[in-house]
Structures are given as C-alpha cells and as structure tokens.
Amino acid sequence: MRSLLRCGDVGMTADDRQMQTATARTPGWLHAFALVLAASTLALIFIGGLVTSTGSGLAVPDWPLSFGQFFPRMVGGVFYEHGHRMAATAVGALTVAFAIAARLVETHVIVRRLALAAIGLIVAQGLLGGLTVLFLLPPAISSAHGCLAQAFLCLTVALAVLTHPDWTPAIRPPADPGLAGLTLATAAVVYVQLVLGAVMRHTGAGLAIPDFPLALGRVIPPFLSPAIVIHFLHRVGALAVTTMVVWSAVRTLRTHAGDPGVVRPALAAMALVAVQITLGALTIWTRKAVLPTTAHVAVGAAILGTIVVWALRARRTGPAATGSARTLLATGRVPA
Fold first, then answer.
1. Has residue 11 been placed in a domain?
2. Which residue, 106, 118, 129, 303, has fewest beta-carbon neighbours within 10 Å?
C-alpha cells in the first residue's frame, strides 16, 4: 500500500499529499483496541487510588517481586497492592500490543508515534511505582507516579480519538481557534488540579481542612501549616476547573449547538464536574472513606479524559475542519 502511495506521489503538490493522507482510514478494530486501552487505564487509576485510600502502599515491601514471589497470598493490603501491580502489568502488555498493531496496519503517522510514546510512559510509570515502594512512599515520587498516570491516560484517550475510522488529519487550521484554545486551556487547568490533588493525597493533607463548604469555619482559612495551604489550593483549583469547564461549555453550546461531536463531551464534562464536587464533599464529610475518596480520584481522571476528547474534536469543528476529505477529493473542491 505504501509503495503504491509513493508511486502515486509523482507530480503531486504538498496539498495533494495532505489530501491523500487524509483519506486513509484506520481499521475499526484498532479503534476498539484503543478504547479498551483507555478504559483499562482509567480502571488502573481507580485501582491505584484504592491502594492509597486503604493505606496499602507498603503492604508488599519489595519490588519487582512480591515477598520474593510472582504471586503472593492475596490477603489484607496485599490484595490491593499486588492487584494494582497485576493490573499495571496488564495495561503495559496492552500498550505494547497496541503499538505493534499500530505499526503493522496502515494508519496515521501520529498514531504510530503516540503509541511508541505510550510505551515510554508506561515503562517510566512502572519504574516510578517501584521506586515509590523501595523508598517507602516518599511524597515527591508518589505524587509524580500519580501525575504520570494522568498523562498516560491523556495519551490513551488521544489514541482512541485519533484511531476512529472517520478521523482524518487536519489539513487546515481550526475553524474556531478560540474554542480550540479554550478547551486546551481547560485541559491544562484540570491537569494542574490533579497534580494538586496528588500532592494533597501523598502529603497527608486530605483532612487538613476538615469542614466543607467552609474552611476551618471561614471562607479563607488561617494558613497555619503547609498542609492547610496545599488543601486550600486544591479547593481553589476546583473553583478554577468549574469556571473553565462552564465557560468552555457555554461557548460550545452557543457556537456549535449542531455539532454533537463537541456538544456531547461538553455536557459530559459539566456532569462529571458536578459529580466530582459532590465526591469531594463526601470525602471530607466521611473522613476520607475509601469509596468516595477513590471515586474522587477516578472521576477527576475521567474529567481530564473527557476534556481531551473535547479539545481534539474542537480542532475539527466548522466547515473547514469537518468536511469529508473524500468528498473534497471527489468534487475537486478545497475549503478556502
């Protein structure tokens, strides 16, 4: 297939080559594979959250083996910690298999490159997980482990979007660069908020402010300790995330109401933010009960993944970005 494309490249302009590339279709099964990988990554984040929420991070004190074994007795905290390791191994295997599949089939270059990057991230994540155990849960390494997990999720979600059979590489700038930039900024704000959340969890600041919606009985608490500062910054971050998501959603609904590709993730993001605020309150009110605390971690990741979908699709909105490349080739019309 590639040799035929190269033969047909003779005499083609740069725009012709872009249009030819845009007509390539990714096999549907590869898209399904990417969806499984993204869903598995989200599940892995939930399982990792369980390890922290149950205090099981050092239930297995060695690495890469578990008590010198491949499969220890799954009792107590070992169930959570070793279960997390098994799930991480499964996601790692899926990542390698996806990268091989993406390399073998005819697909977009960006997908192959991102798949290789995913292998690098999952290896780094595994090493950080091991260092977290070997150095006895230092906050810096533990937080980095959580943050890299979110970055890996973004990568797998992007792969799921880019491998959709109807997705074609952009041949023009976004028709609405304002929305594209706004959703990208929203994703960045959400990621910073997740970083603050990871630092709060791994420094033990989760209940440094034990009341909600007030903070030590005030709107702005007295900053008597670093833990209170970290916790309050996380609450301020929640307000920033809510503001950005609502702002982006209002713009989407006002300017792209007829485009379900961007409207659906906009509505989903707003719903998830409402759920996340509720879970944050429950985490405080239940004194960090395992289920709401862990769900809070997972829903935060789901918000980030949803906004990645939203941001990628926002770059495709409007006539210049959503017109079918095949239709353009057939009619000979190129968008202005």
1. no
2. 106
